[in-house]
Amino acid sequence: VINNADDNCALISIEYKDEIFTIEPDACFKILRTWTVIDWCQYDPFIDPEFGRWEALQVIKVRDRDKPVVTCNVGPCEPATLSNSLGVCVGHISLTADATDNCSPIDWLLWEYKIDAFNDGKGEHGGYDFRVGSLTKKGAAAGDTTEYSHNPFADDRHNPFDASGTYPIGIHKICWFVEDGCGNVGTCCTLFEIKDCKAPTPYCLTGIITVPMPSTGCIDIWAKDLDHGSFDNCTDKDDLLFYFDGDPSKTSIRICCEDFVRAQANDALRVDVEMWVEDEEGNKDYCKTVVIVQDNLDICPNTGSAGKITGELKTNKGELTNPVDVQLYNAGNMMSQVTGGPYSFGDLKLSQTYTIKPNRNDDHINGVSTHDITVIQKHILGKTAITNPYLLLAADVNGNSSITSADIAEIRKLILGSISEFSKVQSWTFVPTAYQFADPANPWNAPRQSSVTFGNTPEVKAVPFVAVKMGDVTENARASNVGGTSTRTRGQLNIELDEKNLVAGETYRVSFKSSNFENVNGYQFTLKYDATALSFEGTEEGVLGTTEANFGLTRTDKGIITTSWNGNAPVSFGTNDVLFTLVFKATKSGRISQSFSITSDVTTAEAYVNTDLAKVNLGVRTDRGVVAGEVFELYQNEPNPFAKQTTISYRLPEAGAVTLTIYDVTGKIIRVYNIGGQKGLNTYNVNKSDIGTSGVLYYQLDAANNTATKRMVVIE
Asked: Suppose 454 and one of 166, 296, 307, 597 were both cysteines; which one would form an S-S bond, judging by CB atoms 3.0 to 4.6 Å apart?
């Protein structure tokens, strides 16, 4: 019978419809095929729906004994990292498989995989540690889930088609199991290795490292001593190997006098080295540096003829400056660099010209204060001229060969903490001591380096420099980082606030006054406030004529405002005169006395009264008189009573350790907190969960020679 045939007796159509059953005990799957044959010459559904129409059911069972063909895919090595939770290195790897079958459609195949960690044949899943499956891709698309999802290292522990993940370093085994519709199971097992395939990151000591030749005439230089923080992604720093020139047995090199003689070096021998770093997996990398072995004491015999340059680096007051990087140039190329002072360069070829250039660029705020601004401002106004050429150079912090209000603005930004360093100059500059200023009032063309020319005769040339600290015209900067200087103060400037209660949601203008503002040239300090209770809104001018430029407002989110002010001449104001006003919005209730303190955290707290340097203290005017801010005081906790958390505020005259003890009405200790405190106002949050009880409790604060106790109430 041919479908749609027409033999002049009948017009035949044939069609079928299949129902597929994948669960069949004796076959891969079963098809119930219903055939329908219609003779359109006889069939008329409106007359008789059965006449001229025939149906027949055909049962088709598909049987297959061939297993699916499974292919394992293991990705390349990826960089490993140290897992803090496991305490070992782990690395990501791609683990997938492909499968084909002669009979079952690809998305009908049932997938599962098992992993034997470290390939030791031990594990809870029949010798395997992890198991994920079983699931077909068709079922996954329909939202079905796996029966087993046990693989904590997999990228997706519910995915039986992809075992990619981050596994511990070692050799592991994975087996894929793929079952077709006839119950045939194809497998593929393979080993995969997680290893550290990333080389260490080497860091050599930068610049030029100088070591002295000992009296023995030989010195050992160890590769590890040239390390400057090399690290590896897996190997601990203590387990890294350090050696020279790619030779693991060359962990050190020995330099002796024979090397000096061979190189015809007298005072210094330059050694170029490669410091290699190797991890436990054998990965390695290196960096290059230079070691200078100096023979300043002439331990080794001198050979040949050479020149030498030495010099001291001192301030105008004669203080040795250190550390300073001193560079030696020849024909425009840097030959060598030493750090320290005095400096020395030896074994220099004769009949050559060399240039010495010192550099130092650290701690820009060192020695810089509002006192320097007052001196510079008097110079600009012509009241008291700065006549020392080195101090004129120090005042020119924007490097434009003049002293203007722009220099003052730059210095004030540094004092307020708005900038961390000068934008146009380094923190120090150096002028050759031998330089004579043609016009001391115009020192701007003073050289910052010195050139030396040797003849044909060996000699030692001394080239000292005067070190100038930029911004410091009062000459109180520390010249050396070793040790420090102390500044004596005489008297104090009292800054005072009026006590008032603060109500959440209200805006307050906090006026700053003084009870002894007499003959004041200027001041500076750090104002700290409780940022959890107050939100800064702005500044308002007072009798000092301050503007926003007198305040550092970059840390208001942390409750810190810095301020610096100076006048053109000493000024005096009355007790009730408002120096300046800060505007705040209260975000929770409290008191002024609990909210502010003056510290030196960012900007050093000091005032300039007549010719004296004075301390700056904060006091609060109350009905009981002025309460000094630098006193010991314990405040009532807020809120009180409390159900979850409360804040305990306290004020210390000096920074130090404190002990906060909470106990009940019987004297039984509930909790002890050993905490630290800074000078001025401090706060500490206490949680009810830490206390574990409710009712009336007492809290006691002990600090140095002071003790105070308050009562609080914990409610349910």
From this structure: 307
